[in-house]
Amino acid sequence: MDSRNGSEVESFFESAPSLKNANIVSQKLKEFIDRNSRSSESGGPIRVVCVTSGGTTVPLEQRCVRYIDNFASGYRGAASTEYFVKAGYAVIFLHRLGSCQPYCKYLLEESFLDLFELAEEDKIEVCQSHGAEVKKAIREYHAAVDEGQLFRLPFTTIFEYLQLLKLVATSMSPLGSCGMFYLAAAVSDFYVPWQSMAEHKIQSASGPLDIRLTQTPKMLSVLRKDWAPFAFCISFKLETDPDILLQKANAAMNKYHMHIVVANLLATYKQEVIVVTKEGKASIRKHGEHDDVEEQLVNLLVEKHSEYLEKPETSLNGA
Ligand code: 9Z3
């Protein structure tokens, strides 16, 4: 990490409003990781993945009325969580509050109330048309929770997200290479530092508004170097211009020492992603109407993680 980024990272965390319930979250995280890091039935260590999902907000006022948001529904993170659980991973689902949740993907298009109807004696029943998918979702969701494979952690602002990511990463550090980060959340590149933010609602009577946004410090390199130096790290690169996508993905891989960067374009991200590694690139495409790219993507990443576990790496900070 260069020293300028280092001091920006420090001042970000020093000036950010402190996390609510940080001690409780930290204790619960520790319990979840301890439980899952004990040997599995097959004798092998259990793998734990932190899936980040949804977009961060950038508040413009401390008593926030207005904010800037990042594009992301949370579908990718929610769907991928399901596939990681299926592959035997324990998942820390760090998600934007109110975004798409695992096992509830269909709720994105449907109103919750469309799933139910009133039956005799005012009993509530699931509509016949949705019966099969709701039953499957309930079974899978409860299995994941009962087996202790799913831990959900919500965020809204960039301040909450980065503090939680640091907490999760440092808690996962003892897992070494069994830990994985799947960073699908859309994280704002710019923010208003807390100390230079208006306290109260900005008044329109003062005329047009000029806002100066500061660059968010680059946390990926800190994650790799200091927070969880042996974990397997996958970040996502979202662009709108196809001509720069791969070049930006490669640059992110080299600059932040990611093991894999998943490149996608806003116009086609639901149909295609490109998995970029040091060895080359592979495209993953959606086949039919009822499947998604996340299943193939997660299967490939699980394979890559297994290969990584076979040849452990020396850490970037020389430890
Ligand atoms: C992604 O590129 C994700 O694939 C999407 C998923 C946000 C497009 P949805 O939640 O969408 O299924 O609706 N995420 C990363 C976006 C991002 O902010 N990446 C940063 C960048 O591109 C690097 S961390 O610079």
From TrEMBL:
Record keywords, A-Z: Coenzyme A biosynthesis, Ligase
SUPFAM superfamilies reported for this sequence: CoaB-like
Domain DNA/pantothenate metabolism flavoprotein C-terminal: 169-298
An annotated Gene Ontology molecular function: phosphopantothenate--cysteine ligase activity
Highest taxon of the lineage: Eukaryota
InterPro entries: CoaB-like_sf, DNA/pantothenate-metab_flavo_C
Single GO BP term: coenzyme A biosynthetic process
Pathway(s): Cofactor biosynthesis; coenzyme A biosynthesis; CoA from (R)-pantothenate: step 2/5
Similarity comment: Belongs to the PPC synthetase family.
Name by which UniProt lists this protein: Phosphopantothenate--cysteine ligase 1-like
UniProt source species: Iris pallida (Sweet iris)
